[in-house]
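Board notes (copied after class):
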Amino acid sequence: MTVDQFLQLLGPLASDPFVIAVALALFTFVLEDAATTIGALLAAMHLVPVPYALTGLYVGIVLGDFGLYGLGWLAARNQWARKYVREERIGRAQEWLDRRLLSTLIGVRFAPGVRLPTYTGAGFLGVSFAKFAGVVLIAAGVWTAGLFFAVYFFGQMIIEFAGTWGWLAGLAVAVAFFIYPFVNEFRRPKTV
């Protein structure tokens, strides 16, 4: 099969809302916020219905969060991983997290770069999966819907204002918004 034949097979799939929703769900495993931004812009351009895009994003984000918890849970059962953490530190961390579980899990949903260690740590420390899942389901829903609709409505305004090139302008603004923290970090003077 040639590349052209393969692309011809993919062509009809690219307009299928279900396929787009699955692709967005998978993309959340790489970059959640970028996937949400792209999904919202696709919906604003009427390339995918809002319910498909939003559901795909939400499912992908929740599954990713559950996966991080699962990695921590598996690590806690691995002797090699456990030998790097002293038992008394695990006990203190469990007590600390038990007292602050709700605020911690909600807070990390809105703070970039801390979900991976926090959600993995929750699994490692044996936080109740039911409690973890309940908070994650709600927090992910609020965050995903909030970001999605902010970009969606902003994207619609840009598309109306700039015409067919509006999606490119909206995407450029969104990319700049997500890249700025990383660029700013490199510009900061390093302290020793």
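Comment from the instructor: The mean pLDDT is 81. The chain has one domain: 3-154.
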